[in-house]
Amino acid sequence: MEELIYENPLSCEDDVKSFVLEGSAKITFPEGKMRMENAISAEAGQKANYVFWCDKNFPEDIKVTWDFRPLKEPGLAILFFAAKGRNGEDLFDPSLKPRTGEYPLYHHGDINAFHVSYFRRKEPDERAFHTCNLRKSYGFHLVTQGADPIPDADECTAPYHLTVIKKGNLVKFLVNDLCVFTFEDDGETFGPLLTGGKIGFRQLAPMVAEYSDLKVYKLG
Fold this sequence. Notes:
Blueprint: E1 2-8, E2 20-22, E3 25-28, E4 34-38, E5 50-53, E6 62-72, E7 75-85, H1 104-107, E8 111-121, H2 124-128, E9 131-137, E10 141-147, E11 160-167, E12 170-175, E13 178-184, E14 198-204, E15 208-219
Antiparallel strand pairs: 1-15, 2-5, 3-4, 4-15, 5-14, 6-11, 6-15, 7-8, 7-14, 8-9, 9-10, 11-12, 12-13
C-alpha cells in the first residue's frame, strides 16, 4: 500500500521557496521545470558544487519519484535520501557542522544518508562506462551499482522518470520503471539501518539539468 504524502511540480520559484540551498547555484524555471546550474566556475572544483534540499522530513518507508532531463555535460547528478544527523538530529540542526556543497561534508561529516548517483558524466571513466551508484554514509560505502540507461545530454530529448524505493532494509532504483539495482542492507556491514529524513538534489559543475514532478509516497 502506498499513500501520496508530498507533491511538488517544481515548476516555479514559489514551489521551492522553502527549499534549502547549500553552496552556490542558479535555480531557474525557464520551461516550467526547475533548472539547476552552478553559479561558481567549475574550475573552483568542489566549491562549485551544491545541494538543494527539500525542507520536509519523510518517514522510513517511502517511494520518491521525479522527472529528470540532463541538458549539458560534463557533470553528475545525485539524490540524497534518509538524510539526518548521525545522532538522529534534524538535518538542519544548528549543532551540525555547516555544509557548503563540498562532497566530503556529506559522506564524512555530521550526517548519515543514502546517495544515488544516477547520471555520472564527470570523470573520464564515468563517461566511458555509465553506471548508477548507491552509496551509504557515514562513510563513502559503495553498496551497489547498476547500468545507467539514460543517454548523454545531447541525445536526451525528453525527461526520464526516476524512482527510489526505501522499505525496511531494501533500496531499489528504477529508470522509466526499469529496475537498475536492488540493495538489501544487513544493518551491520555498512553501519546501522537508516530510517527517515530529508531528500535533496545534488549536481556537479558544470552540468545543467531540469527536474519536475517530485512526489513522495509513504509505503505501508
